[in-house]
Amino acid sequence: MAITLQDVALHAGVSKSAVSRTFTPGASVSPSMRARVEKAARDLGYQPNVLASSLTTGRTKLIGLISNNFTNPYFLEIFDAFTRALQDADLRPLLLNLSDAANAETSLEKLQQYSVDGVIVASSTLPPQFATVFQTAGIPVVHAFGWSSPVSGTAFAGIDNVAAGRFAAQTLLARGYRKVGFLGGPEQATTTQERLGGFQSALNSLGKAPPIHFAQDYSYTAGFEAMNEALTQEPVDAWFCGDDVIAVGALHAARAANLHIPQDLGLLGLNDMAMAGWSGIELTTINQPLNAIVEAAVALIESGIADPDAVPDHRLLPFSLADRNTLRQPG
Fold this sequence. Notes:
The chain has helices at residues 5-12, 16-22, 31-44, 50-57, 73-88, 104-112, 128-136, 161-174, 190-204, 220-231, 244-256, 290-306, and strands spanning 62-67, 92-97, 118-122, 141-144, 155-158, 180-184, 212-214, 238-241, 266-271, 285-287, 314-316, 320-322. By secondary structure, it is of the alpha/beta class. The chain is elongated and about 80 Å long.
């Protein structure tokens, strides 16, 4: 039989309300009373019922974690980091997959059924307007790993995608490549457009117009097929692939076409997912500081819950080059 709050109260010789206050964060209870109740709870093996506690506090500690990028293995790393970070903050992730029904109203309805305290949108393809629906409903929302342009009413944690695109162009040129192109994710993805915009601006300033190709989705197969198509068109010395999983597919398509990497063709990715460092891949890529972005997003959602009227913050984290074997060395 489960041990109840009443059992703890009887064992400790106190009222039920005293036990309830002891296990309610922020409630007033004397140190001696707390020690007495906690000892009784340990003696009986009692654990507070978090659902019952939410009725008292008005907080469920549930955080909706939503995405539609489940074909991209990088997001499995992101979800792992988010679930760990949320649990460490005494919050509970509620994962929602919007791969088949990516509209804001549907996700809002689902999450309101569980009375979530906040929402983290972890996606590079859901549009900026998606997150504002939660904000309008009075739910604190943070967008992570997506667009980097400020969006009114929405907190953000990630890298500056436009700056990353410029950095990619500068890196390829510094490695001696002269005819460089862009092989991005889905064309409609905001991050794709931002990274392409930065890439183009750096090249256009030098009078260069890069060839542009888009993969159908964030997957190995899409990257393989997009590179196969690109190889049938004008010659390119190096490609900036706007996502690692696309770059890995492109790498294997190039090798299947008997091209030597990086001598015949250079490839640069973005994310620095674990697979990028595997033997046989060793992809040179732009590193997103995954753990720092996750920590910032969790801190932002905690701030949004604590002060719903605060102006949402935008935190841009620094990126860097993870230099491996798919680009020539400088000089």
